[in-house]
Amino acid sequence: LAPNLGVAIIDDTDVVLADIPGLIEGAHQGVGLGDDFLRHVERTRVLIHLLDGLSPDPIGDFEAVNQELELFNPELADKPQVVGFNKMDLPEVRERWPHIRDRLAAMGVEAIPISAATGENVETLLRRAVAILKELPPLERKRALPVIRPVDEDAFTIEKTPEGWVVRGKRIERAAAMTNWDYYEAALRFHRIMEAMGVAQALEEASIQDGDTVIIGNVELEWRSDFDY
Asked: Could you give the CA distance from residue 187 to residue 91 in angstroms, rounded to a whole number?
């Protein structure tokens, strides 16, 4: 699978657009060809992040995709984003838009309500992306060099201390710091990351007990073997 490329002409500016297939949880570890998709994202300068207005949890989807970007390459999370909330032609989506708008605004995100079906606000979305592009410094043309990703990116250590079980590791600490612990789904998503990375199994093999404290970076968790808060 490869991104679909197209060109949009906004005023006097030609913009190449790459339609990247939707990322899923675990993309940074290659789930669903996710690492291939994320490499395409690395070559972009501005991200247009579209949220499905019919999704049960658009905010959770938004956070999950950004977490995958961060876990794959922290520089991806720093790329400027234009966020669109799609399917506004549907009454149920239009009705929930104010709530989604306010939640995104509380996160510092100014989203644009759009409808790909009717074209509502699509040009506004593109104009905002073009405006950001024009503010970015020009790309430096240089010979491409191979990027070597460290093989121990997922490495972690576990230490039993009087305060609790301390887990240290670049990726797991980054994931914990990025998790919004106010939301149940975000907490479950983090526990699935722990399982995928082998952290959960390592803690169990070290004889952790339900109710023990797990410390990951600045985050403290109460351990539950069923990963269900």
From this structure: 31
- Show Cβ contacts of residue 21 under 8 Å, excluding neighbours closer than 6 positions: 1, 3, 33, 37
4-135: CATH number? 3.40.50.300
Q: ∠ CA(10), CA(13), CA(17), 5° rounding?
A: 75
CATH T-level topology, domain 157-222: GMP Synthetase; Chain A, domain 3 (3.30.300)
The CA–CA distances, whole Å, from 28 to 136, 157, 158, 191 equal 26, 21, 23, 16
> Which residue has tokens 């007990």?
209
Q: What backbone torsions phi and psi does residue 48 show, to the nearest 5 degrees?
A: -100, 110
Average per-residue pLDDT in the chain? 84
* 114-161 pLDDT per residue, tens: 999 999 999 999 999 999 999 998 766 555 555 555 556 678 999 999
C-alpha span between 218 and 177 (Å, rounded): 7
- Asked whether the beta carbons of 124 and 112 are under 8 A apart, the reply is yes
E strand segments, the chain: 4-10, 13-19, 47-52, 81-86, 112-113, 157-161, 164-168, 213-216, 219-222
What confidence tens digit (pLDDT) does each residue in 34-90 have? 456 677 777 889 999 999 999 999 999 899 888 888 887 878 888 999 999 999 999
Indicate the domain borders of the chain. 4-135, 157-222
